[in-house]
Amino acid sequence: MAIKSKLIVGLGNPGEKFFKNKHSIGFYFTDKLVNYYRLSSVYHKRKTIFWKKKTEKYGTTINLIILQPQTFMSLSGEAVLYIAAFLRIEVQDILVLCDNIGDEIGSYKSYIAKEKENHNGINSLLDSLKKGGFSILKFGIGTPPRKVKEEDYLLTNFSKEELNKYDNFFPTITEICDDFLFRND
After folding, report:
1. Which of 67, 103, 129, 158 is 20 to 30 A from 164 in CA distance terms?
2. Which stretches of 58-161 are assigned E, i.e. beta strand?
3. How confident is the model at residue 7, as a pLDDT?
């Protein structure tokens, strides 16, 4: 029996200057997950950076791929489609980590993508994959202060205190990812 491949995608904008931006929270968590799952083999292919490893947990063996598209947020779907096709990953075996403006910092919600929404990265995936059915884990990044445009707020950096809130619930994030990767069939 073939080993199933599962993909975790962190959405963000490429480049050091965007790394700690609120809009790049997906990159923040995928970096932490690369360490958590001890992925060391990194690959650079067609506007992507990804890590790949055969791994086992709870009696289930999978090929785990963690991806950071190196396109800007609104073109993330192109990179995801390329890797999903290249590694033969089914849409239901994709988990996307991204920001959720308007929800409290330190909060999260998960659901299955069905239709377009107010997030350019998710909409790009829906356009490129030509369907929903992938899982989404969104992290609250707060609400812009009055008189601050949403697009400007998305590009502000997290404070140390805000990042500490995310670090404090990282064990919960790993449980959600473990469930998706190893118990979700």
Report:
1. 67
2. 60-69, 94-100, 108-112, 135-140
3. 96
Instruction: State the Cα–Cα distance between residues 175 and 125, nearest whole angstrom.
Output: 24
Q: Tell me the DSSP string of 26-71.
A: HHHHHHHHHHHTT---EEEETTEEEEEEEEEETTEEEEEEEEEESS
SS3 166: helix
Q: What is the pLDDT of residues 114-124, one digit of tens each?
A: 877 778 899 99
DSSP 8-state code for residue 74: G
**pLDDT score recorded for residue 175:** 93
- Using pLDDT thresholds of 50, 70 and 90, give the confidence band for residue 35: very high
List active site positions: 23
Are 13 and 120 in contact, with CB atoms under 8 Å apart?
no
